[in-house]
Each structure stands twice: as C-alpha cells, then as structure tokens.
Amino acid sequence: MMIDEQPGNEADVTIFVCTNCRDESNADMRPGVALIAALKEATAGKPLAVKPVTCLANCEKSPSAAFNHRSGWSYVFGYLTPENVEDIVTGAMMLAEDERGFLPLRGRPACLRGKGMTARIPPFHHHEDMPS
Known about the structure:
Elements: E1 13-18, H1 31-42, E2 48-53, E3 65-69, E4 74-77, H2 85-97, E5 117-121
InterPro entries: DUF1636, Thioredoxin-like_sf
Pfam families: DUF1636
C-alpha cells in the first residue's frame, strides 16, 4: 500500500504530476502517466505521495510536476521525464527533510533548477514585512 493510500498517514511531500500534456512526437502518448508509474515505484517506503493532476498550466515545459510540502512551500517544475525519477525523488526528499518546508538550492538536482523550475509558492501561513 502506498503512503498516499493509507488513512491518517499524511505524506510530508506530495508530488503532483500532470496527466494532460502530450508528447509532440506521439499525440496519443501522455508522458506524465509514465512518470507517475515510475515515481510511485521509486517512492515506495518514503514519506512521499505521488498523485495525478489533470493540468498544472505549465504546458510549454511539459511534462510537469509540482511538489507540495504539507506545511511548507510548493514548487512547480517542467521538462521532466522518467529519466529524471531519481532526481525528482532526491529533490522531494530534500523538501520533506527541511525543517522550514523549503527546498534548498544547494544540492538540488539540475533538473529542478534553472529552466526546469517554473515557480515556488509560499505556504498560506507565510508572512514577510515590507522593507522600510
């Protein structure tokens, strides 16, 4: 049983993967579906959940995935493939293990930085004061 299927056992990080994007070379192929299958296998026994999402509105960088920390930051990434599974799991575990629920840049796999990173979203409880 996967961690996201266990009642009362909330994952530290949920990895949402877009299932709507299509492969340009094969209009019938949905690369996110293959990515989900590979991620579910790779995250077994880890405090991570993998869930499909119809669209992340990141179509220009498909396939896309989002990391959502249960009490911290969220991140959206693009240009991901099944070859990136190990790096995706590494990044999600870095986020899960960070006390602040923040994905540090130092040590982050290359596919989760630069052109692959689309956005980071603060948690609802986040607060910063404007500089004086």
